[in-house]
Amino acid sequence: MTGFSDAELVALVLNGNVDSFSGLVRRHQDSCARFAVRMLGSRVDADDALQSAFMRAFRGLRGCKDPEHFGGWLYQIVVNECRTYASRQRRREQRFPSSSAAIEGAVAPGSEQEVDPDVGGHIERALSTLPTDQREAFLLKHVEELTYEEISEMTGVSISALKMRVKRACDALRGQLEGVYNG
Amino acid sequence: MADSFEAGDREAMDDQAFAERIAAPLRAPEQAHPSFEKRLMDRVRMEGPALYPAPGASPTSWWWTKRVFEMSPMKALAVAAGVAAIVGLSGIAVGTRIGNRGGEVARAISPTAKPDTIQLVRFVFVDARASSVELVGEFNEWTKGSTVLRLSGAPGVWAASVPLTPGRHEYAFIVNGTRWVADPLAVKSSDDFGTESSVIRVVKPGNSET
Questions:
Q1: Entry pTM
Q2: What is the ipTM of this complex?
Q3: Is A182 part of a structural domain of the chain?
């Protein structure tokens, strides 16, 4: 499936070759995983959210109006699904379990370890305390490096509101991480 | 004004620099679990043939013919033909309830009903050529084999009753162990991406909506 474009794989699926969906999964699963893990703070929850998001994408594949940009369409579904899961997390009042040895041992490790794990842990914990909308905006802007226009189109939130969310997220993170980074 | 602008500008640059320091470690790649693709594709292969049939694949069941049913489910049951699925409700504690089409529930409310009463929802599936019919949904975590419909007297009429809490539930049938069939008469879920799932909304006794 590596020789096919996204649009070709989508067309194959729509014409009954459902196994072709695996090519799309393989191509996009890791890029989606980063956002999901950062957003949900748990690889287990991220895995659930991604399974749900990819199935939504599969079921709604006819709704992908521009198969050449399947990745962006899928990413939008992933963002929405993560928002739903984050709300559930809030409802359950779950703490971020990213440092849980049991959970980490059950999932694939990241391929890079560039950061002092203590600092990374501080950042993840600080991130986990942000309201869902601020965390989402911060991640999309500064981690996924999307433009405000792209985020606005994806989330339906105005650019000014997104800027405010990112600003508030930065302020909150700065307050929490002052001791780590000294401002 | 100039001082104010410069102060604001400096602040924005500080924010940008700070955000960059925070974001850099978060940009480390993540990998999906090694079993992610297999688990997903198992579900895709189960649902796929019903969603995206291959060209030329001949339908093996009257499920696949487009029909419009005007008759009530009870009438349809009586004639045992022409109805894809009917969802009947009976309140465990509140007496008989009968649904019309999937998800659109007509209710006979008992004055003794309690708001949080669990509803016993009867799923009926009619297909004379089916050799087995199972029900999967959010209520059984989409677990194949956990809810098996039984022949209920009339030929080809399969039925099972499932206790459900008031609220929205998605479901589908699995025919002959492998074929995923969404209820063509049920209310469809309405998300932004064209996903069409079968939905039943179980109402609380005494309410018009859950």
A1: 0.56
A2: 0.81
A3: yes
